[in-house]
Amino acid sequence: MRRKTVGNKVVSVLLAGALAASLAACGGNTANTGADAGNNAADAGTKEDTKSAETETAADTEESSDAAVADSGYEAKDLGGRTIKIGLWWDEYWDSNYQSLDDIEAAGGSWTNEETMQMKLDAVRAVEEKWNCKIEWVNLGWDGIIDSINTSVTAGTPDCDIYLTDLQFGISPVANGYVQKISDYAPADSDILTDGTVFTKQNLLGNDDYLFHESTTIPSGAMYMTYNAAMIDSLGLEAPESLAEKGEWTWDKFAEYAKACTQDTDGDGNMDVYGYGSAWTLTVQGFCASNNATIADSSTEGLSDPKTVEAFNFIDQLYNVDKSARPYQDDWNNDLLAFSSGKVAFAFAQPWILIQEIDNHDFDMRICPAPVGPSGDGSMTPAMITNNYMIPVGVEDATSVYCVFEEMMNWYHDDISYRDDPEWFESGFVDEDQVTLANKLGALANNDLWNSIDSEGAVSKVFYGDVVNGDSTVSQAIESNKQILQDEIDTLKIQ
């Protein structure tokens, strides 16, 4: 039986210092670079100089660990010293291999908050003692974790009890029956089946019974329209946020702004600053969401949906008719980071990008709601980037595995103020009003998965065929590729 508890918050010394680093998920889909950066920032960053800070005494640490054991939520089962392995593609430094912060530092690990790192170690100690088990984070590397899933999991003998997956390689094992259902192993009163303080289920094309991720109140994986405030001010244009509040920030108004911002600043006869420019995946995600369009969030492809067609037609207008979008460079970083070098006025970007680039420009970079399309209503923003856990078929006693994992991951004992430290996220925005807007827009994220499942490139063929190569119209490109996407969705049918 799980007992819901709220741990007592001890006096803490918050270690200041903004973390400006991105987590690069190396692999086939560059669009997911930086995935879950906010969730992992506390453990991925550089340790501040904390030697002069007051730390807990040995007695305090022992008392904290004892309290953790007492507060744990499930009736324990003796696991006989079993090691529960969690596979991922980076190093984590809080498991049975590390007894102290000194151990972590000696191994090359770091932290941004000494108190919370100690709390995590205490949670591991509590789980070890209560369940008679060990915990091990296993860094398999990007290619290695994919290989482990494709070989050991499909053979029914998983290398790890739990895997953290990017959706690029997390959906296929679900669709092919290699992942256990959450409802089969999670206790009825578990966090994931009740209030979701620790874990949130991931919806996959209408089914949410297989993958799950850490819950958070901070939308670190959101995507925003961002703009060069100095450029807008210099042109005497009203701030987009103000227009949005009045219901006047529409595609038509955006098209006017994009034209006004497209300029030949050095007088050589060539445009060198454009109204809009971004990586192509962000462009598609952003404008589709602004028109309430999704391409793959159910069992039926949405590429041919009239709302999606409208979005691609508007993208075509910006690039090929108005010519107010920066010509596509087909160079990921060149397109993605054009906003920070002042080459474009508007772009779509995620928090990690804003934070990474904060020292690479000398103007205020602000966010605003995306302009609303003719079929949109402002209620939808692009999908969140999340990594998700799964327990494969072949893992014995998945119920105990889940319970141990939940208790360990609830190292903050339901006091989410420890977990959701907003400092990293907020550092990407210029003032409190912008932070408020970022949280508001982040809460509107949709569940469109096309960028994770479209391995055949149906969506990119539409974008390249029309926008880049100009060898087909939007309608022709969509008609030629919609069945390709539908076939991919069909192969991922989840029971």
TrEMBL record:
Keywords: Signal. Residues 1-27 form the signal peptide. Residues 45-54 have a biased composition (Basic and acidic residues). Pfam families: SBP_bac_1. Residues 32-70 are annotated as: Disordered. Transmembrane segments: none annotated. Residues 32-44 have a biased composition (Low complexity). This is ABC transporter, solute-binding protein. The lineage of its organism: Bacteria, Bacillati, Bacillota, Clostridia, Lachnospirales.
